């Protein structure tokens, strides 16, 4: 999923997750075992807060993976030049023979 996120979409998701707006009603359908498990952990009265935290954490994990993938692509694109520069510096630091 993260590989298909454009930088523009990542920025938009980061912006949206940075906001803390008023609550809005949403109707979702979950399997019975998920509802019972959420209620067992959070209590029926806290179900919405529990689901909100879970969705927020999931979205943040997706964004972290997207940023990580972006960083790896940037590192890989520059790896050859970085390795050449490192080799050059190591040769300059070597003891003369």
SSE pattern, N- to C-terminal:
HHH
Shape: elongated
Distinct helical segment count: 3
Count of spatially separate domains: 1
Task: Return residue spans where pLDDT drops below 50 for at least 5 consecutive residues.
Answer: none
Average pLDDT rating? 90
Which strand-content bin applies to the residues? under 5%
Helix content range of the residues, please? Answer: over 70%
How many DSSP E strands?
Answer: 0
Q: Biggest β-sheet: count, sense, barrel? A: none
Distance between the termini: 54 Å
Oligomer: single chain
Structural class: mainly alpha
Rounded to an integer in angstroms, the radius of gyration calculated over CA atoms is 23 Å
Describe the structure.
- By secondary structure, the protein is mainly alpha-helical.
- It has one domain (about 1-15, about 25-95).
- Helix content is about 70%, strand content about 0%.
- It contains 3 helices and no strands.
- The protein has helices at about 5-20, 30-40, 45-95.
- Helix 1 (about 5-20) crosses helix 3 and helix 2 packs across helix 3.
- The radius of gyration is 23 Å and the shape is elongated.
- The N and C termini lie far apart (about 55 Å).
- The model has no long low-confidence stretch (mean pLDDT about 90).
């Amino acid at each position: 999923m993260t590989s298909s996120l454009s930088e523009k979409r990542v920025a938009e998701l980061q912006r949206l997750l940075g906001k803390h707006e008023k609550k809005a009603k949403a109707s979702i359908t979950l399997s019975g075992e998920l509802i019972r498990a959420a209620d067992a952990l959070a209590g029926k009265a806290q179900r919405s807060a529990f689901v909100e935290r879970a969705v927020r954490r999931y979205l943040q994990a997706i964004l972290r993976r997207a940023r990580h993938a972006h960083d790896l692509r940037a590192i890989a694109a520059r790896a050859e030049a970085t390795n050449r520069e490192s080799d050059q510096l190591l040769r300059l630091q070597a003891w003369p023979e």
